[in-house]
Amino acid sequence: MPQDTINVNLTHQALDIKHVNYYQPLLVYKCSKIKVETSTPKVKTLNLNINSFTKQIDALEKEGSNDQDAFDKEKAYLKKAIQAFFSAGEQGLRSVKLLIYKDSNESKEIKSQLQENRYTFVVLINTYSSTNDGGDGLTVYKDDYTHFKEDKHFFVFATKESEIKELFKNGSNSKAKIIVIHSKKEEHLHLRFISKYLHEASIFHSTNPYGLKFSGMNPITDSGDIDKLRKANINFYSLLNETGLDGVMAFKEGVTLEGAAIDELFTYHYIKYELTFELVRVWNVNNRQNSKLSALQLDGKKDNAYTTAIECKLKSFIDKGMIVSYSDLNVKIEPSQA
C-alpha cells in the first residue's frame, strides 16, 4: 500500500511529468582516456541498443595522442559493461542512453539530463582500473555526487566492498533511494540487475527484485561475507538457500542502503507521479480555475473533480495489482518555498 501522505513538489515544469522514464534508466560512466565533446557540456552521449552497441563503443575516440594501450583497455572494459547490461537478451532492456564525462565539474550535466528526461533510475559505471577488481563506485563518484544528487531519483552503485566506506558512511548524504550492489571484477551485477528488473517491472510493475536470476555469475557463499553485506544493506548474488542444499542462485536482498524494499519505494514513486499528473490534467481541463494547486480541496470531505480523478486512478492501480486498497490514503500537495 502507498504511504499515508504523498508530498508533491510542483516547482519544476510539472506539465512534463508525462515524460517520466520509469523503466528506462540513464547509464553514467566517468571516463579516463575517452574523448568527450570540446564544447560545453563536455560529455559524450550514446543512444545504445542491443544490436549496435559494439560498433558505437568501437567508434569512440581517444583523448590526446598518448596511452593508446590504456585507451584500448578502457574501451574493452566499457564494452563488457554494456554487454552485461544487454546479457539477458529478450528478458532485459534492449536500449539505453549512456552519458560519458571526464571532469568532475561536467557531472552537472547528469542533473540536466534528469530534469529534461525525468529518468527514475541512474546507474553509475565504475571507471576502468588496471587492477580489474571491480572497484568501489562510492569512491569513484564521491566528489561528483553532490553535483547531481536528487532525492527524486534512484541511484545505483557497484562496489567490491562488503561495507560502506565512502559517500554514505558518515550520514552527510541521504541513503534513501540509494541502491548499492556488490559486484566482483567485471561481472557488472548492477547493470545486469537494472536491465532485467526494469524490463520485468515494465510488464508488471510490482515485480519483486529479490530472487532474480542471472547467467554467468559466481555466487557469494562465504557466510561471513554475506553477513557483512546484509548488515550494510548491500545487495549481492548468492544461493537462494544459503545452506546450499538447493543449488539455486538468486539476487538478494532487493533493498536500498537504508533497508527499504526497492519495489515498494518504486511503487510509491510511480503512484506519486501518476497522481500528480492526473491532478495537473484535471486542473488544465478546468482552465486552472484555482491558481494554486496547493489550495485544492483533497481531504475527501467533499467530492469534486480532483478527488474523483484520484479515486479512479487509485482504482486502476488496484486493477493492475499494484496496491491492495487505499482507504487510509491521504493526498497532500505542499507549496514549494522556491
TrEMBL record:
InterPro entries assigned to the protein according to its UniProt record, in alphabetical order: DUF787
Pfam families, per database record: DUF787 (PF05619)
Keyword entries, A-Z: Plasmid
Official protein name in the record: DUF787 family protein
